[in-house]
Structures are given as structure tokens and as C-alpha cells.
Design brief:
The complex is a heterodimer of chains A (about 300) and B (about 230). Chain A is mostly helical and about 300 residues long. Chain A has a domain at about 20-225. In chain A, about 75% of the residues lie in helices and about 5% in strands. Chain A contains 11 helices and 4 strands; from the N terminus they run ααααβββααααβααα. Chain A has helices spanning about 1-30, 40-60, 65-95, 95-115, 145-165, 170-180, 180-185, 190-215, 225-240, 245-265, 270-285, and strands at about 125, 135-140, 140-145, 220. In chain A, helix 2 crosses helix 8 (about 190-215). The N and C termini of chain A lie far apart (about 55 Å). Chain B has about 230 residues and is an alpha/beta fold. Chain B has 2 domains: about 1-75 and about 155-235, 3-Layer(aba) Sandwich (Rossmann fold); about 85-150, no CATH class. Helix content of chain B is about 35%, strand content about 25%. Chain B has a 6-stranded mixed β-sheet with strand order 6-7-8-3-9-10, with helices on both faces. A 4-stranded antiparallel β-sheet of chain B has the order 2-1-4-5, covered by helices on one side. Chain B is globular and about 45 Å long. Classes of the chains: A mainly alpha (about 300), B alpha/beta (about 230). The interface of A and B includes residues 185, 187, 191, 295 and 297 of A.
């Protein structure tokens, strides 16, 4: 029984990191119908920003996790910059295919740029302890502080994000732009600003995910983003890409399956099972678990 | 109110609008009729800034609209009901209406305009919590019109409001347009249904392959032989 509960907790922890990243994929897809392949690399950017700012933050007498604030700022800037410099010009002139290839190029560019920076280089770096080590026990189940903090903070962020899109003026504008750009313009919404805001939020979430990931697995390397990004992308597709609650659900489904496969079958099969689930779901429900088409009558 | 002079619009190499000029006076209901592909919708898109204009001038109450960013035009008192409704399907009726007042910050004014729209369209009030995508075509047209009224605009551009509606609903939509006109709102109406469009309008323009071929009082055009032959099926 305790193994089971422990496995669920690990699944939730993995799932909340995947969900945070999947939100970035899904929000950008929802608003410009582009799979942002560079999104995974924003996690890497956030990871290195945390590594480099932790000593600074500690010197100021702040806890190590405060470095995430710098990562949020840097990732948001990189995300907005990617949209303005790379994606927007291509969207104006090119096709969906050229935009997709630009996204892949952006991903490779960020990975290689990171390697070219002498302070980063090709060898992995190890981060300091982020959250307080240790944990507490309830019965025979151990709750690590890192795990509890990861799950709680992710849950809070997801609820806040959902409320933002449903209840605030800017959040509603984002939903309008994702549904219909010309109608949104007629309402007086600045479509370009709204897209930039979406990139900023999605990338900031990637920075938080980087912190959560590093708290558990402190080894950071330049292609970290593509490994972690692909699972988060699977999560987004599984839940129904473009749908915010779908990304959260997909993240937890992937996290739990990974955790259960690791505990009860074999850790080397974990990724295979995740992709198997993806294939099965897409065969049964091509739009993803929560994907549906609202019938538009004419 | 609205003054267009020598407007030219290109789609790639295609010269879609070839130097048209038209005007809509204060409180007037002006119809722009013509066949499919004549450039009616393109003209409205050019006014709202949704497509680039090659040359010519578009002015609203003396202000040059070509210098205004597309998303700022609504704040100048021009609202546009697009062809095919373009309601936000995944939002409720009331959310759609509130999006119509996106540029208004004053909550009291939004509430007041919402009441005004619900007074025009009681059916929308009944369905306020329903998703817009589940409304019927006629209801979606009402919603798109109500959404455009949420800023209490000086001039309303309406693009094919009768498209795809049953004859009974077409009558209902046109009586709504007449009522709006009676409340003093200026309307530029684009329609393929020339008969109805000429019946409600003060003046009208006939658009043929990007050029205005005829214009005048709606009543006179409705009796003109060429118009009757080409557009009224007489």
C-alpha cells in the first residue's frame, strides 16, 4: 500500500512539472496554431539562469529558490523575443510549414548558443539544493519537502492561470484572439500584444518548471529541453492541444503512467508506455482527451 | 459621417476595389449591393483596417481612418458586424457581448449598454449563459449585432446580415435593422439580398467588379430597370 501511495505522489510531482510545461505549448498553439519547438529549450534557459543566479541570491541572504524570479524574467524575455524576431515575420509572409521549421530552427539555435557560451559549455552542470532537504512521514509514506512544494506551487499556478483566462480582461482577450483574430481586432483587441503576452506567460511557466525539475534532478545540460519538452508536448496533445485544462490533465496522466511503470514494471519502459498511451488515446479520440469541436451553426 | 474617396485595394495582383467613392451621412442608412465577388466585403474590411489599402482616403467624422491602428477604430465610434457573424463560439452569449465593450473601462457604462442590447434582443437575454457556438444562425446574427452595439457606436457596418437565414428570419433581421436606424444610428449595410436592402435604405450604391456602377435614392434604384433586371429578378 505504501508503495502505491508513494508511486502516486511521485506521479503527481512529475505530472505537475509536465503540466506546467505543457501549458506553454498549449497556450501558444491555441493562439497562433504553432507548435513551439523552442518551448522545451526555454526550460533549459531557465535552468541555467537559476544556476548562475543562485550564488547571487544566496549572497543577498535570500533562499535559493528566489533565483526563479530571475529565470522567470529571462525566460519571458526570451519567449517574447522569439515571437517578435523569429515567429511574427515568418507568420506574416510564410506558410504554416515555414513557421514550424522556424520553430525547430529556434530550438536548435538556443541549444547551440548555450553550448557556445563558455560559462555553459557542453558538460552538464549540477545545481545547489533548491528547497529544504528532507521530509516528513505519515505512516510508512515519506513526503519529501521538494515533492510537496512542487505539487502545491504547481496547483496554485494552474488555478491562478485558469482564473486569469476566465475572469480577467486580458485573459478574455487571449481567448478571443485564439478563437478569431479578425473579430478580436474588431473588438479593439491588439492581437500582436496579446500574442506577446501569451509567449511571456508560457515561457515564465517554463522557468518555474525548470526550478521544480532541478529541485529533484539537479543535473542541467543544453539539450535538457528537448528531452523534457517532448514529454510535456505529449501531455499537451494527450489532453487536447490548445485547451488549458487539457494540458494539466495530460501532464498528470503522463506523470502517473510514468511513475507507475517505473515502480511496477520497469523504469526503462516508462517512456514507451507514455507514448503507447498517446497512440491509444489519439486512435480513440483524435482531438485529445478534452478536445472537442463546438459545433458552429451557420 | 463616413467619407470614402477614390479607394483602391489589391489582393496580390488582383485589383479588387478600383477607385470607389462613397459617403454615408449622419443618421443615414446606406446600402451597398452587388453580386458575389463585387468587392462589398472588401470595402468594409478596408474601412475597418482589416486589409491594407493601396490608395485613397477613408475618413470618419473628418478623421483619417487609414492613420488609425485597426484595433483603435472601434474607439472612434465605428463598429463592424462581420460577414458570417464571427461570434466567439466557445464563450457564452454574455461574455461575447462584454467583449464588444472591450475598449470601455467604465463598468457602469458597460452595464448600461448591456441593458440596451438586451432591450433590443430579448432572446439574447434568455440565452445569456449559453455558449455562442450552440445558438441558431439567426440568434448568432443577433449576437454579432448586439456585440457591435456594446460601444454604442456612431456608425455600424453590417456585412450580409441575412446570409444563410430562412426567409422568416431575414424579415426579422431587417426589421431589427430598421429599428436600429430609427433610434438614430448611422448604418452602412452590405447585402446580396438587394430587394430587402433597398427597401430599408435611404440611399444605395451598386458595386460591380470593384467599381460603383450606380448610386442614388434607394427608392429610385428599386425602380430602375437595370437594377430590377440584374438584382431584383424582375
Amino acid at each position: 500500500m505504501s508503495t502505491f501511495i508513494q508511486t502516486v505522489i511521485v506521479g503527481l510531482r512529475l505530472g505537475s512539472v509536465y503540466a506546467l510545461i505543457a501549458l506553454g505549448y498549449t497556450m501558444v498553439y491555441g493562439i497562433i496554431r504553432l507548435i513551439n519547438f523552442a518551448h522545451g529549450d526555454f526550460i533549459m534557459v531557465g535552468g541555467y539562469t537559476i544556476i548562475f543566479t543562485v550564488p547571487l541570491v544566496l549572497a543577498l541572504g535570500l533562499p535559493a529558490w528566489a533565483a526563479v524570479l530571475a529565470a522567470v524574467a529571462v525566460c519571458a524575455l526570451v519567449g517574447m523575443g522569439t515571437e517578435i524576431i523569429a515567429y511574427r515575420p515568418v507568420r506574416k509572409k510564410g506558410t504554416n510549414m515555414s513557421a514550424l521549421i522556424t520553430a525547430i530552427a529556434m530550438s536548435l539555435f538556443l541549444e547551440n548558443l548555450a553550448q557556445a557560451i563558455p560559462a555553459i559549455g557542453p558538460n552538464p552542470k549540477v545545481a545547489d539544493q533548491i528547497f529544504t532537504a528532507g521530509g516528513f512521514k505519515i505512516g510508512s509514506v515519506t513526503f519529501e519537502y521538494t515533492t510537496v512544494i512542487t505539487i502545491v506551487i504547481s496547483a496554485v499556478i494552474m488555478i491562478v492561470l485558469y482564473m486569469f483566462t476566465q475572469k480577467t480582461r486580458l485573459g478574455r482577450a487571449m481567448r478571443c484572439v485564439s478563437e478569431d483574430k479578425s473579430a478580436a481586432t474588431l473588438m479593439g483587441i491588439n492581437v500582436n500584444h496579446t500574442i506577446i503576452l501569451t509567449f511571456a506567460i508560457g515561457s515564465a511557466l517554463a522557468a518555474v518548471a525548470a526550478l521544480m525539475y532541478m529541485a529533484q534532478y539537479p543535473r542541467i545540460y543544453t539539450t535538457l529541453g528537448s528531452d523534457l519538452g517532448i514529454k510535456a508536448f505529449v501531455s499537451a496533445v494527450l489532453g487536447g492541444i490548445g485547451i488549458i485544462p487539457g494540458a494539466v490533465l495530460g501532464g498528470f496522466v503522463v506523470g502517473l503512467f510514468e511513475s507507475f511503470t517505473t515502480s511496477y514494471i520497469s523504469s526503462s519502459l516508462a517512456d514507451a508506455v507514455v507514448f503507447l498511451i498517446l497512440i491509444v488515446v489519439l486512435l480513440l479520440k483524435p482531438a485529445g482527451i478534452m478536445g472537442k469541436n463546438v459545433g458552429e451553426k451557420v | 459621417m463616413l467619407e470614402i474617396k477614390d479607394l483602391n485595394v489589391f489582393y496580390g495582383a488582383i485589383h479588387a476595389i478600383k477607385g470607389i467613392s462613397l459617403s454615408v451621412g449622419d443618421g443615414e442608412l446606406v446600402s451597398l449591393i452587388g453580386a458575389n465577388g463585387a468587392g462589398k466585403t472588401t470595402t468594409l474590411h478596408a474601412i475597418s483596417g482589416l486589409i491594407p489599402v493601396a490608395s485613397g482616403s477613408i475618413s470618419l467624422a473628418g478623421e483619417d481612418l487609414r492613420k488609425v491602428a485597426p484595433n483603435k477604430i472601434i474607439s472612434m465610434g465605428l463598429a463592424h458586424v462581420p460577414e458570417g457573424r464571427h461570434v466567439f463560439a466557445r464563450m457564452t452569449v454574455e461574455e461575447n457581448l462584454r467583449m464588444g465593450a472591450y475598449v470601455i473601462r467604465d463598468q457602469k457604462l458597460i452595464a448600461k449598454n448591456l441593458d440596451m442590447v438586451y432591450a433590443h434582443f430579448p432572446r439574447l437575454k434568455e440565452r445569456r449563459r449559453q455558449m455562442a457556438g450552440t445558438l441558431s444562425g439567426g440568434e448568432q446574427q443577433m449576437l454579432a449585432t448586439g456585440r457591435a452595439l456594446m460601444t454604442d457606436p456612431k456608425i455600424l457596418l453590417m456585412d450580409e446580415p441575412s446570409m444563410g437565414l430562412s426567409p422568416l428570419l431575414v424579415k426579422e433581421i431587417f426589421s431589427i435593422i430598421e429599428n436600429l436606424h430609427k433610434t438614430g444610428i448611422t448604418i452602412l449595410l452590405v447585402e446580396q439580398n438587394a430587394k430587402m436592402a433597398l427597401a430599408v435604405a435611404d440611399r444605395a450604391y451598386v458595386l460591380e467588379t470593384g467599381q460603383i456602377s450606380m448610386s442614388g435614392k434607394a427608392k429610385d434604384l428599386a425602380e430602375d430597370d437595370r437594377v430590377r433586371k440584374a438584382y431584383l429578378g424582375a
